């Protein structure tokens, strides 16, 4: 009776309604232009076969509502209440930290691209979004390779006294030491903006004009450097290019329904280039796809993120005009939400739909189809047995220093972290990845043979060379009942979604590598295992490097903490620089008290007893 009375007295006003179950828990939040019409429509006998409404209504015992002045206010309030209550029958988008952007402070004196997660109204230019840090790293690596702007962060830039190595190799013009003026550096920033906007063709025109001017002025060396930059840009100008009629910024959405689950894919297109792609997965709870997209889009753009000029969706949305108005107000420019019926935009949607289906296939690889994937691996790679337990190895070092090895274990296609092992290289002191791999494999399998603890399959990263090392270990330890494969990157291929390296799989006694389809579940599983081994090795290597950095002879001197140690290294460059310094230099350059400077000097010169001249002047 309470619910019936509320339905009779609903106002003809915009607002938000909260449906609750018998336990008074919010199970659905919705917004309406007219609360009376919208809420009562759920309880009408003829609902046109809307099965998801029938299912929802069966759980509703009470309804509360909040009045708003406008439908736009209701839209914003709906998003906030969904985040607050996390209702069972709403999709709940939780990706506040998923996307990162590149920030360029164009109003700063000598700006450099930065990676940020929040877009602010601070006068800077923002580019993206990027769904992964890898995509950002590739973009910044390309920029720093093409344009000689500074690479160092602000903290280092402000304190640097002399140019770094990048200046010596002509990858930076040395703004830290006043070796380039603001006008020239501003031209470089304009070039960076063109790259980030995907306008490499315009940049090539600018550079060709500069090259011509340098050549006319007989500055042939500078002209040659500009020529090399032009060639580098032209080689990559087609990378990730989507051939569309216009070069507006777009977000393109696609979806794939499988049972009670939906996968939504977003392609971020900026100036005709595919910048990145992101995938989302939800339980639909009997919701219609139109309702799913309505709620998803509202939540997606309620986050602090870049808003493109066009939003292309695969279904009609009841809120498309409202969303256009709201986003146009936020952006300060006209935003359109389009559900295309023909033309190039339909083909973009088809591409997003295919990617959504592929995201579903990948998820199945890591779920119920793992047993089938392992069986297929056995047949495809000519293995002796099903690889129910896989051990994968990787090596990590810098110029042979702090060299480590890693081993990760996957059982039934899933990581078993309790079996992970890390190895600090003990017998190899130079750059020799093969010798390092040999040491790691011997140490691991000498004991494994004794304890009869061998896996079904061993994977090594590094192609034929590392496979030869592993086969040698097999001979030394008389291992003959374990399968072995080696992974290596092949030549890069250009596809519609960008440039991707083909994966080569080497197996013993076969001269040619096996190449699996890039999207095959078998290759995705192998890549996942190899990437996990690499991550584990790099993490251990970095840990040792940090430990080495923070360990020095200065630790043995009382009163020298981490802050003072960093300061001394920065001032004198190295431990040897500190060792060579006089007491007076330690006081003047290192800004140390005379007593502390004397202790440091005496520590490094224990056999000497120098006379300190007039130390009072330093106190």
Terminal CA distance: 86 Å
Radius of gyration: 31 Å
Question: Can you tell me the number of structural domains?
Answer: 5
Oligomeric organization of the protein chains: single chain
Domain UVR: 201-236
Protein name: UvrABC system protein C
Main location: cytoplasm
Domain UvrC family homology region profile: 252-474
Task: Describe the model.
GO terms for molecular function: DNA binding; excinuclease ABC activity. It holds the Pfam family GIY-YIG. Residues 252-474 form the UvrC family homology region profile domain. The protein has 619 residues and is of the alpha+beta class. The chain folds into five domains: 2-85, GIY-YIG endonuclease (3-Layer(aba) Sandwich), CATH 3.40.1440; 100-236, no CATH class; 250-365, Nucleotidyltransferase, domain 5, CATH 3.30.420; 371-535, UvrC, RNAse H endonuclease domain (Nucleotidyltransferase, domain 5); 553-618, DNA polymerase, domain 1 (Orthogonal Bundle), CATH 1.10.150. The protein has 21 helices and 18 strands. It has helices spanning 2-8, 35-41, 51-57, 71-85, 133-146, 154-159, 165-168, 182-196, 200-216, 220-236, 289-300, 320-331, 344-365, 370-380, 433-451, 463-477, 521-549, 562-572, 575-580, 583-588, 594-604, and strands at 15-20, 26-32, 62-67, 100-104, 114-116, 125-130, 250-258, 261-270, 273-283, 310-312, 336-338, 389-398, 401-411, 414-415, 421-424, 457-461, 483-495, 498-506. The strands form four sheets. Strands 12, 13, 14, 15, 16, 17 and 18 form a seven-stranded mixed sheet that branches. α9 (200-216) runs antiparallel to α10 (220-236) and α15 packs parallel to α16. It starts with a helix and ends in a 15-residue tail after the last helix. Residues 236-246, 492-501 and 607-619 have low confidence and may be disordered.
